[in-house]
Amino acid sequence: MMETPKGEFATVLSYQADRYTATVRTENGRTLTGIPRLRTSPGEIAALVPGTEVLLSFEYGRPLILGVMPPTGGLSDETKFSLTDTEGFGGQGLNKTELGSGGEFRGPAEPDDAMPGDWAQMGPEGNLISVLAGGVNVMRSSGLSQVRTHLLNDLVEIISRNYRHVTDMGEFTVQNNEGRINMRFRGGTDQRTEAGENDNNWTIKFDMGAEGDLLNWEFTTPQGQTLFRFRVDSDGQCEIFGINGVAIHSGALNGGVSSEVTTGSREVAIGGDQKLKIDGTQTQTIRGSSTTDVLQNHAVSAGNDVLQNALRDLGIGAGRNLTMTVQGDPDADSVIFDIESGNWLVDIAGPTSPNPKSGHTLRTFAGDVNTESLAGGNFNFTSLLGDFFSQTKKAVFSTNTLPDSVVLGGRALTSHLVKYEQLEQHLMLLYQLLDRHIHLETGTSVAGVFPVSGVSGPPVVPFSSVLNPLIMTFKSLTSGVSL
What we know:
five-stranded antiparallel sheet
């Protein structure tokens, strides 16, 4: 029994594009029809050209085209195409081989500059889409009709001899007409009457190059009436035209002042960034009000001082945080709030605040925090529901020895503080005297039923051993007195 071959080479005779199947003739002379091709993905579409050599498989119950075989022999450099359009790469450079043996699997028109890591899909006219080693992608129809993207420097190149970009607004082209090059734009602002598919009533016209005689830019009505024109011709003449007038006042060459005068209101719209550089001094005089709306950030930087003066109120509002950073002068006050009249009120949060527990913190690294009242004002610290905490190494209250000037625990004075160390010496001496104290008895005392005469001894239990340890209970470990 003859074994059925698992595979066989074949040549495509025709391709049924409506079914994506091929009619092939095998190397043994059989003609097979309706043969599908194995795809690399469900979305792959690649119609096979008659004459293409393929590899058939019979292992899966029905014939299947596993792949396309490369051409053999017939090398030619006369009509070959290139992946890179640069000499010395791939098979032309370090990957070139001088071996003359083995098969030749590059067709006459196929590129010889491919290198390991390259992938390309090429058409019969040399048009291709390729992913090349080194981070280069190319979509090309010809050397002057291609798009390239580069990993190096994030570069995108669009290379074309003639260029056309069509949008809803109009048409942008770059044309080379027998060496005469022109950049052209025709557009409109209303797709219904100006820039529609069948309208072409262009109200925006731009030519730079041969057709514009260097540069011509116009805005017109849909009927073609010019509203504005800016033109520079090849002789260097510049023209600015406005149907309702254009006024430019320029200063003289020798010490003159360049001025711009607008008799009515003025509105300036800048689509990008604006930079204003003034080498001298800038002065603005505004007779009315001034309003500045900044949708993002607003930064002001000055090499010296920044002064703000308001004859009435000065308000500062911040939707989030307010940060003030001062470098400071080591020999002077860095931040000064000079209030001639009225109170300084710092109101933080409230019952309706998103964070009613917001507080106030004042920090210094090693310097003092000084609060002075120079004409008899009071210092009031009030917390209706909270406590007063002071966490310091030492607390000193100096009130110039005025009587009862420091009261702890409330406004009503009930007890005075004492100097503990002096009281300790006094009590310890008193206990020592009591320890040595004796009584002279003259018979008036009675021990049982007999009168007692003579001298009594010191107390059986000394005062010092019992009462001295209790002296420490009088001492405050957190408060001291300096008088």
